[in-house]
Amino acid sequence: MKSLNKYVGIAGILTGVALLLELVFFMASGFTTTKIADPTQAITLIQDKVVLLRIATFFGFSGAIISIPYIAGLAAKLRAKAPARATAVLYFGIVGSVGHGLVALSYYLGFPLLITLSIHHLAQAINSWGGFLAITAGFQGLGNLLLGLMLGLAGLSIIKIKEDLPQGVGWVGVAAGITAILGVITTATPLKAIGYATYIPSIFLAILFNIWVGRRLLISDQSWLSS
Description:
about 90% helix
């Protein structure tokens, strides 16, 4: 059981690191909301920065895969004292990870196709960008919303249980969940400035939560995964 505990902790740390690297490479590529909102700028950016973007998206879908055993282990830890919330953490987290992974994998596979199309039919590539962006935005919204709920519920459970994991990580989880949810529900509303303001903080809070929890699970000597 201790070895399983160790592997869940490693998965949590790797989930946080993968998310951090995904963000770093996206930022290095210049992939901003302003640029992707303009099809011409977006296609040009993809052509010029495809290597950085593919590295970013590789970390994106890899991290989503790695997060599944981590989320399952975290839910198992919470189940004894908060069974209902633990179940919600499990399902919200896994489905949210799938949503996040679909965005990254769609970019990873789709960007080279768009580049090839732009070489022969630039107008078609530009015209197809809006539909591609709308589909991936839906995946991203689903992923961010459910992962936000997962983080918030996990953080709340940690605060209430007051065992094994520190209270501070619980508050980080709650803050990460609230900011992620705000980023989704304020999109294309008069409050969209709030969404823009909370987007990057929500990612850093999620990174901190995942690495902190993963580290605590890694060094824990309690067999909390036993049935």
